[in-house]
Automatic annotation (TrEMBL):
Domain spans labelled Cytosolic fatty-acid binding proteins: 6-23
Protein name: CRABP2 isoform 4
Transmembrane portions of the chain: none
Keyword Oxidoreductase assigned: no
Xref: Pfam families: Lipocalin
InterPro entries recorded: Calycin, Fatty_acid-bd, ILBP, Lipocln_cytosolic_FA-bd_dom
Organism: Pan troglodytes (Chimpanzee)
Keywords, comma-separated and alphabetical: Transport
Keyword Transmembrane helix: no
Protein family according to the UniProt entry: Belongs to the calycin superfamily. Fatty-acid binding protein (FABP) family.
GO MF annotations, alphabetized: lipid binding
Amino acid sequence: MPNFSGNWKIIRSENFEELLKVLGVNVMLRKIAVAAASKPAVEIKQEGDTFYIKTSTTVRTTEINFKVGEEFEEQTVDGRPC
């Protein structure tokens, strides 16, 4: 598996608002999330198949840890588990 460690910038995002709609995020939070998520800073630390990902936007910062192939819990933009 290639090592994805580093600091990353998203160049483009497609259908993010539609994804949030399918997840049941209300319209106001969708608009805020789409505006904030347009240019997030992403930091990835990888050790083998274990990942730490920190995503920072103007609205909030989220952090997740997971191991490839194992289930993990994450939250939607409005704080619900997914």
